[in-house]
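Hi R.,

Quick one: here's the Lipopolysaccharide biosynthesis protein WzzE sequence you asked about.
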Amino acid sequence: MHSSIDNELDVESCVQRLWRGKKWIGLGLILGVLLAWAYTMFATQKWLSVAQFSRPDLSKVTHYYQELSKLNQLSTYSDPASTTDNADVETVLDAVYQTFLQQLASVDNRRRFWLEQGRADKAESMTPTRLDRRVASIQFAAGDKLHGTVDTLSLTAESAASSSQLLKRYLAFTDQQVMDQVQQQLSAAWQSEMTKIEQQIAFEKSVAQAAYDQHVKQLKNEAAQSDDNQTKAAINVVEQTGPVASDSLLRDQARLAALQSGPTSLKPFTSWTMLQSPEPPISRQSPRLPLLMVMWGLVGVIIGAGIALTQRVKKKE
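And here's the predicted structure, written out as tokens:
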């Protein structure tokens, strides 16, 4: 019976011990807060800049749309008098924006950006470890229409100003990559269309030549049978004229001549519409001084309380 009572916690005695050792608790609190403050002074700071965007409007990619419309009008399977074959606006805008998003989230694109920044800033050596950290500092989050979210890009840097500036540079860098890729796709589509028209022209010429040879052969047979001077004169006219080009052949030759000039170089364009500009952040992402002061202060209080209780026990002994 006495042993169970002896093992019970004496709350009143503990409170008295803590009160007598309050200087240790206060000292632990102060030390914890000071350590938290000192840590934030020397720890690497992280400032997060955020940009949000959506699909561009037609005014941003007008030149590219015009080049696509021109290509579609000159297509082998299009009717020059029809306007229904022009590039669909929505399809073009979606294609450009999807190319932008793919480049934006690409690890290779981020790596090329930081390597270029490293070459521009010769004072900083871009080691593989540093490069991996820089690549991870850029994060892309795809939007979800069902949940009302938009496409978001964030960049973490060591200062508020640099995080905003670097994010703007990355957007401009990605825009250039998109423009280069779109230009390559347009040139490839242009060349493919030229190849198809050249093949079509070669086929139409072979058909016209076969028809011409058949007609000349028929006239010669008639001339040999009848010895008609009129037929012989017709043969001379046909031979001097040569194969007759059909309307489709003339149209394809005109298309080929128009395509041979090639697509014009695209003017710089923006493949997105900004919803939230990457302004310098107001507060840093890490380290968070208030949170660290609270956490380390609590740790200091706990350590101080332990010392106070231990000191009291030693006095009794």
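The radius of gyration is 39 Å.

Cheers,
M.
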